[in-house]
Amino acid sequence: MSRQSSGNKPVFGLSRGRIALIVIILVVLWWRSGPSTDEPTAEPLIPAPVTVQAPSNADSDSMADALDESFTEAGSGFEAGSLDAVQADTPTPQKATPTKAVSTPTPDGSGSGWAAGSVAAAQGVSGLATIFYDDLPSQAKETIRLIDQGGPFPYYQDDETFQNRERLLPSRDSSYYREYTVETPGSDDRGARRIIAGADGELFYTDDHYDSFREVLR
Q1: What amino acid positions are annotated as catalytic residues?
Q2: What number of CA atoms fall less than 13 Å from residue 212's CA on the CB side?
Q3: Partner of 136 at 20 to 30 A CA spacing, among 1, 6, 44, 173?
């Protein structure tokens, strides 16, 4: 028997020639199935333009109405307590206080030389011109002190009824007013200055012997 050469021994039952043929076929198939250089390159996708349409007049009116309703609802929720707090923080305007009058007494202390600005701006109960107690001459203040304590008075005519014949004071009963002397430094008699007191506590000062009166404000 002849011995078969080991170089021609089949692999997996196949001869080497058949295996080479199969490999060639596989290479050809792989080459044909690969990417082709002739295929066109894919172009990038460009998004289509989007057109934004402006709202019509009707749409604008609807949006404005919606905003108005929103603000109205928000305002209705404002608590009354918040408004009170705002009002509490608001300063209250102050009323002007009338300026007190400044007297200009004469050098002899009689006080008869009153300047035009001496009449107080405040109003009394009589409707007459007024003068503050602090602006009276010292002798008039002393007379009022004696009236408050009920005397004694330096002149016998003091505490007598004042008839109001000049009708410058408010009209009252004949016994309503009483008069009192205000000392005038350097005068040989009672002088021209008086305090007239009403039964309800009103006080009036005259420095020209009843030609004019000012209501005393205390």
Answers
A1: 179, 209
A2: 10
A3: 173
Torsion angles phi and psi, residue 71, rounded to 5: -65, -35
Dist. CA 205–CA 198, nearest whole Å: 12
β 203-206/130-132 pair status = unpaired
Are 188 and 98 in contact by the 8 Å Cβ rule? The answer is no
Burial of 101 (C-beta count, 10 Å sphere; 0-12/13-18/19+): buried
pTM comes to 0.47
pLDDT tens-digit series, residues 89-148: 666 656 555 555 444 444 444 444 444 444 445 677 888 999 999 999 999 999 999 999
